[in-house]
Amino acid sequence: MLPFSRVTVIGLGLIGSSILRAVRHHMPTVHLTAYDADPAVRARVTELGIADDVTDTVGASVIDSDLVMLCVPVGAIGAAAEAIAADLPADAIVSDVGGAKLSVLEAMRKALPDAVIVPGHPVAGTEHSGPDAGFATLFHGRWCILTPEEGAPEAAVERVRTFWERLGSNVEIMTARHHDLVLAVTSHVPHLIAYSIVGTASDLEDVTQGEVIKYSAGGFRDFTRIAASDPTMWRDVFLNNKEAVLEILQRLTEDVTALQRAIRWGDGDTLFNLFTKTRAIRRSIIEQGQDDARPDFGRTHE
Amino acid sequence: MLPFSRVTVIGLGLIGSSILRAVRHHMPTVHLTAYDADPAVRARVTELGIADDVTDTVGASVIDSDLVMLCVPVGAIGAAAEAIAADLPADAIVSDVGGAKLSVLEAMRKALPDAVIVPGHPVAGTEHSGPDAGFATLFHGRWCILTPEEGAPEAAVERVRTFWERLGSNVEIMTARHHDLVLAVTSHVPHLIAYSIVGTASDLEDVTQGEVIKYSAGGFRDFTRIAASDPTMWRDVFLNNKEAVLEILQRLTEDVTALQRAIRWGDGDTLFNLFTKTRAIRRSIIEQGQDDARPDFGRTHE
């Protein structure tokens, strides 16, 4: 059974446009309505033909909908929720794809005090942005985390779960607070460090940018991929998951300081033991299908 | 013209075995002799048939050679150089592939005071180790850095340059000191941070290892690839490039602290400006052929 028959996607970047494509592919009878605040993006999505309707106002996009997916940056979710409040059908479910959940849930709840809200976060993406970057298989084999409030209607949560499962995802349910801590580790702090190290490298006086680029195959280039992700989206994530990010960052800083000390004092055993332990985690990630086992992620070597 | 007609490779891991394969592929008339301290590795290389001779002693591997490539971890290069001293032909050139050059040059010079030494570092690799991990195209389009001493015989440097060019690499020459600083930025510190963050994640009390693995597609998995590299090799790199690594690490720590402060105080502009700047570096790396432009490095999405 279809979990929803009329789905609205608001915000048509990498994730929003991938949802349109994935729904079209996996549930072709679902009616898809799309809206984006940027007229150029709306025009592009019309051209791509990945939605049944692209509306000129946000209100018009939700009037018939039974699932409204807010796919805007985390900092814009409150405003998007306010913008649909007047036109939202009483029985529609509102969801989102934001990378920070505690603040998003609060913002949505404030704007839509009586709506059925089931916040979600598909842990998937690439470094590319915009409606052309999306694709139908982005969610295949990836996890989607739902963070319903305590006491949220179970039937609504199950429908959103089925929606993501139909798009090829595995679904996990946890509290918004726990989500924010887990993602601080597996996503937010790695991004912050990647952005930071790329920034550090470009500011050095004794090493030119040309050198950094030439010799990036030594490891640096992996960080630049992450540090090429959408700036607005990531700014909002950090501002909206402050507490967990700062906590994990503090832990990381302590650990880096310990390694720094090991290097300074020539303590090879500490280094060797850590470097051995970390290999095991990589193996598990590959065994569980969360990464490509080919060397260099299967990068082409001509 | 062939730069060398008899090449010896000592140390038959990812890089050493890739050199054997690449020479066989690009200069098939060159005679290849191989040696590894581990009898099991020697047996495997014999089985793979990627060298003309696999010798049982290190001395026997160099007697006829005109190029000896030391492909052992940086911390073992001094001992390897000592081990070949008695049998090294007077006109042979000794080179290596170590990721730290100042200490390696000193160690080789000490063991071989009269030899012609041209240290080198191919900036290429994958997260896999051992003789089975090597492949002939590993050096294609990658840079190889040579760090000859001041006053090194120019003809010898040019022959080693030609050798790497024949394997598909671009060659750059710089001082050992500058190499160590550049690589600290583009390789060593990224690896240290990757190892560290994977370690931090596995030590948390409130987030399980299962969760870290499940949600690794949020960015973390890129770090685990780097943190799966050979532990011995990396321990040695850090112990042998102490000064530059600690200097770059200090710069990075300052920059991370500034971001930490921006997050704490809600300074979105600082975050946004950095996140925008870092995108440009990624573009240059792709334009210069040092990475794959496909999203997610071309990881398969089924």
Helix percent of chain A reads 40-55%
Give the helix/strand class of chain A.
alpha/beta
Give me the CATH architecture of the largest domain in chain A, please. 3-Layer(aba) Sandwich
Q: In angstroms, what is the radius of gyration of chain A? A: 21 Å
Strand content of chain A is 5-15%
What is the succession of H and E elements of chain A?
A: EHEHEHEHEHEEEHEHHHHHH
SS summary, helix count of chain A: 12
What's the number of extended β-strand segments of chain A?
9
Considering the protein shown, what is the CATH homologous superfamily of the largest domain in chain A?
Answer: NAD(P)-binding Rossmann-like Domain
Biggest interface = A-B, 113 and 113 residues
Q: What does the average pLDDT of chain A come to?
A: 96
How would the global form of chain A be characterised? Answer: globular
CATH class of the largest domain in chain A: Alpha Beta
Taking the sheet with the most strands of chain A, its summary is:
6 strands, parallel
Strand order in the sheet with the most strands of chain A: 3-2-1-4-5-6
The CATH topology label of the largest domain in chain A is: Rossmann fold
Number of domains of chain A: 2
Distance between the termini of chain A: 46 Å
Poorly predicted segments of chain A: none
Oligomer: homodimer
